[in-house]
Amino acid sequence: MMVHRLFGTLSALLLLVSALPAQAAVTITFWNRDFGNYFPHAFFTLRGTPDRGGQAVDASYGFTAQSVTPALLFGNVKGRVETPKLSYMNGSHARFAVTLTDQQYDAVLRLIAGWSEKTGDSTYNLGKRNCVHFVQEAARASGLTGLEHRKLMKKPTSFLSAVEQANAGHVTVIDKVGKDYLASLPPIDGVRPIDAPVSDPGTMKGKPDSTD
Are 68 and 119 in contact (CB under 8 A)? Predict the structure, then answer.
């Protein structure tokens, strides 16, 4: 009798394991930074392994002007997709996350390539094509809704708050300082799927980063 019970338990466990996905999906996390020696900024991170398998990813991307000058106030300037430095991320704010399907993950990668100075249109415009617009399109590619907030397109924190509220129950709320959030993540041997320069986005001239 005991043997039959043990066999039944093992069979149930094997069925449960076989029902689980073979790979962990990629998660996109949305971030903002609205304080310190920087102009307001929004960006996102990608972390995990596509359901289809392959190399794990661990990367971050934001869109910013190549130079912070008065020219920003008068129209189009050169922009680029950047990877924020770890010190910058430590002082930023992780807001919420979404688990991506492989199709959504691919759409986010196409977005990054489409805004890159190497492979796409990297024109930056403070009012029409800034970091919030980039994150807005990443959220759209991720399947989120409630993204049209004209008055918030220069306000990363307010924009992400509005998107979080519009997608309550669909996103995983994090609401942590970057340093604490990053420390809570398990180790991952991930790559950056699309290369981007590493920098401190939007540093004000004469005010270097002081965050460790």
Answer: no
Q: Kindly state the helix (H) or strand (E) to which residue 47 belongs, with its residue range.
A: strand 41-48
Give the span between the Cα atoms of 126 and 40, in whole angstroms.
12
pTM of the entire predicted model:
0.83
Whether 144 contacts 163, CB under 8 Å: yes
Token couple for 129: 């094509």
What's the sign of the alpha-carbon dihedral 114, 117, 122, 123? negative
**3-class secondary structure, 55:** coil
Class of residue 89 by CB neighbours under 10 A (exposed 0-12, middle 13-18, buried 19+): buried
**Which residues of the chain are under the pLDDT cut of 70?**
1-24, 35-38, 202-212
Whole-number CA gyration radius for the chain: 20
Count of positions (residues) in the chain:
212
Q: Closest by alpha carbon to 98, among 190, 30, 161? A: 30
- Map tokens 């309550």 to a residue: 168
pLDDT digits (tens, 9 = 90+) for 126-154: 999 999 999 999 999 999 999 999 999 99
Dist CA 152 CA 134 (whole Å): 13
